[in-house]
Amino acid sequence: MFDFFQPTHPFGGQTLRLVAESQQGGGDVFDIARTCRDIEEGDKEGWERSWISLAERTEKKAKDALASGHKATARQNFYSANQYWRMSDVFLTMEDNAKKAERFIKSQENFRAAAALNDPKMEVITV
Question: Are 66 and 54 in contact (CB under 8 A)?
Fold first, then answer.
């Protein structure tokens, strides 16, 4: 595990950003800490796998909550999954554009699902 409260490595800096965003619903600090526990500093493939796994689990929780009529829980999990998908690609390079595009789409799908459940409603604007 790397230190994300006093980061000296890019992994720590990226994670600290997400921890800060968790205050406003951008993730769950305990899920973030559990995910980081299994990532070795500098292991970019491990970073990707860990964040994708958390994103998929969180997205599933959101869909299950929505199917059960728990809109607030679904919304929160969709917002969190949005950020976890985003975290999975922060260290990808130009050679990984196809992966980046796939993850961007997953991130946006989760954000839009959350926005549809927001009160007041959010309007998606395409430019």
Answer: no
| 57-107 pLDDT, tens digit each | 999 999 999 999 999 999 999 999 999 999 999 888 888 899 999 999 999
Domain count, the chain: 1
- What are the backbone dihedrals phi and psi of residue 14, each rounded to the nearest 5 degrees, phi first? -65, -40
- Write down the number of H helices and E strands in the chain: 5, 0
- Its domain, for residue 107, covers 10-117
The set of residues, in sequence order, having a beta carbon less than 8 Å from that of 31 and lying 6+ positions away, is 54, 58, 80
Q: What CATH number has the domain bearing residue 80?
A: 1.20.1440.110
